[in-house]
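**User:**
Everyone, produce one record:

**Assistant:**
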Amino acid sequence: MIKKVITHKVVQVLTDKGGEFVNEAMEAWYNSRGIEHIQVGPKSSQLKLCERTHQSLVEMTKAMMEQSGLPRSLWSEAKRNAVYLKNRSCNKGTQEVPYEMFIGAKSDVHHIRKFKALAYVHVPATPGRRKDNSNAKLGYVLGYAENVVVCKVYFPAEHTAKFVSDLRVAEE
């Protein structure tokens, strides 16, 4: 599902003829929204900025995965976190923050924590729960939601990741 969060209209999409963007379904989607799809060669100079940004995100993701020691299955979560952080960091070339340029509002970064910071997620009381049961579940911060201040937390005991809002984070 694609949800429009901003008022900017996309008028062009530039791709390198990759299969994920060049197919009947995507062409129908572009056409239904009046978007011009421009296809260039894979080594086109027009794609240098995009390719460099992608390379930078991959390197950030590698560093987070290496430092964290988390399972490789969480690569996409680390990559999503890298994108989130990059969009809220000052761009060297423009000296501006991409999120702020695009959305037109100051980005709030007070909630950002270290990747794989220890998180204690509150477990609500339920009828019949014993008093000596833990009030918190142990997890690790993986990332954030786009439009609300919640953290994505990985629970190693369950091998699951969920968005949660009621947590305490312990950073070193």
About this structure: Residues 89 and 97 are 6 Å apart (CA to CA). The two ends are 37 Å apart (CA to CA). The chain has two domains: 12-43, 46-170. The mean pLDDT is 89.
